[in-house]
Amino acid sequence: MEQDKLKVVILYNLLERLQKGEKKDILAEEAIIEEIEAVETAVRSLRHQCFVLTLNDEILSMIHWLKEIRPDVVVNLCESVYGNTCMEMNIPALLDLLNISYTGSPPLTIGLCQNKGRVKDILLSEGIRTPRHQVFNQPSGLARDLSFPVIVKPVHEDGSLGISRESVVFDEKALTRQIEYVTKVYDQPALVEEFINGREINVGMIEFNGRVEPLPISEIDYTGFPAGIPKICGYEAKWVTESVEYQESKPVCPAPVTAELKKRLETIALDVYRLFECRDYARVDIRVDREENVYVIEVNPNPDISPQSGMARAIKAHGMTYADFVGGMIQKALERRPG
């Protein structure tokens, strides 16, 4: 089949009303529109037929239209189902059942990486350094010899939801408060991990021309943060444009790292990518302390690829056009087409 005759469906979720969390969290949901527009422009520039399909509050109409369109490839940009991030893995599983090829990681990878605590357990089992941590269903005191300061996060959310300057805590009282906040407001366990005070590094990975390769290393420069605000990429830093965190978070790509550190970062990111059986593209979030110890913080299959994202920035620094990246994903999905 010629490339210019492919039927490509861009599939994404759009949530008009949040089921949990803060009212401001809708900003992260609305940001998906920019991502969809960019991918659609890239697909059309590659001379494919392009269909944009939205998953809202029920799934039967989505299945109906997939059967009507009969796409060659689905660009899977769904990040939740019915507002539940834990159900994200069900979309690629459904596409597998329908024998439809799709971009990005398979269900098991997405499901595993959606549980930040489980990710850390797997990393440690493979000898990959990650901060010491514990998962709390309710406040019950600091355990497992964790040392303050610690950072408290929802165990299942993406996009820094539930993470703010209050998330980094220095004593038991603040820890109890923050665990209660996560468990009640986000209706899920809280991940508590030792806070690594150091550099914030992201390593994007892509599969292109038959091989997995790291993109130029990115860093978030927090030197402009006022005293007293923890140097983290919380919700405000990602989405709230008027916040000091957003205005003073400066992305740098390529990051200024030594050749030795660059090699270690890329090797670890590649090991993590393969360990979790990521596919097509992914991002590994890392902290590097003052002694240049490398800690893997999170693994992000199917990360944000909107034009302002770190992935898009790294793709550009790699010398690749956005359309080439999207075309590469589509080609990989075609190669996996049943039959």
What can you tell me about this protein's structure?
The protein has 339 residues and is an alpha+beta fold. It has a domain at 3-103 and 327-335: Rossmann fold, CATH 3.40.50. It is built from 12 helices and 13 strands. The strands form 3 sheets. Strands 8, 9, 10, 11, 12 and 13 form a 6-stranded antiparallel sheet that branches. Helix 2 (32-45) crosses helix 12 (322-335). It is globular. The chain starts with 6 loop residues before the first strand and ends with a helix. The relative contact order is 0.15. The model has no long low-confidence stretch (mean pLDDT 92).
Record field, number of beta strands = 13
Q: Roughly how much helix do the residues carry, as a percent range? A: 25-40%
Residue runs with pLDDT of under 50 for 5 or more positions = none
Q: What letter string, H or E per element, gives the SSE order?
A: EHHEHEHHHEEEHEEEEHHEHEEHH
CATH C-level label of the domain at 3-103 and 327-335: Alpha Beta
Beta-strand content: 15-25%
CATH architecture of the domain at 3-103 and 327-335: 3-Layer(aba) Sandwich
Report how far the terminal alpha carbons are from each other. Answer: 14 Å
User: Number of DSSP helices?
Assistant: 12
Tell me about the largest β-sheet: 6 strands, antiparallel
> What is the global morphology?
globular
Radius of gyration: 20 Å
Write down the overall mean pLDDT: 92
Secondary-structure-derived class:
alpha+beta
> What's the multimeric state?
single chain
Named CATH topology of the domain at 3-103 and 327-335: Rossmann fold
